[in-house]
Design brief:
By secondary structure, the chain is of the alpha+beta class. It contains 5 helices and 6 strands, in the order H-E-E-E-E-H-E-E-H-H-H. A 4-stranded antiparallel β-sheet has the order 2-3-5-6.
Length: 160
């Protein structure tokens, strides 16, 4: 998008579909702290996955109201966030804390004053903030492997 006007995030979600591998063929654009960001095309998401202890609340629907925030969060954990600049899309690497804060901020936006969703947003944030380090590390490792394999100098196997 070259136009920097804000688009309601739920409308953006409707335009983006997942393929069979939970990849986003077209990417997923959103705004956070005045920055136009996107989960890059081809990036991975598993929807609103959450640590097991949150499932007792029965509100952690993987494709429910919080999905747009989860897709953005997955992009951060998998090092798949890009920012729109005057020169086009550029990769942005985020810390785990930044990813978690972005997730919470987007959840509050999506909750739109609904008290129940606000409480859920707090629980979702605490779940990823306290229990998401392994997922963050796995996402970064996966991204590093994919980046190395995309490098034309990466060893492709066989005898040297």
């Amino acid at each position: 998008m070259s136009d920097l006007t804000a688009i309601p995030i739920l409308d953006v979600l409707i335009l983006h579909k997942f393929n069979a591998d939970n990849a986003l063929p077209e990417g997923f654009e959103f705004f956070w702290h005045g920055r136009q960001l996107r989960h890059k095309p081809g990036g991975y998401t598993d929807g609103m996955s959450s640590p097991q202890f949150t499932h007792v609340f029965k509100f952690a629907d993987p494709y429910g109201w919080a999905l747009p925030a989860a897709v953005a969060h997955d992009g951060g954990y998998h090092d798949a966030i890009e920012e729109w600049t005057v020169d086009g899309w550029r990769a942005v690497s985020m810390t785990k804390d930044d990813c978690d804060q972005m997730f919470y901020d987007l959840l509050l936006l999506l909750a739109a004053g609904d008290v129940t969703r606000h409480v859920e947003a707090m629980a979702f944030y605490e779940a990823v903030h306290l229990g998401g380090l392994a997922a963050f590390n796995q996402g970064r490792a996966r991204a590093a492997i994919e980046q190395a394999q995309a490098d034309p100098d990466y060893p492709k196997g066989g005898a040297a």
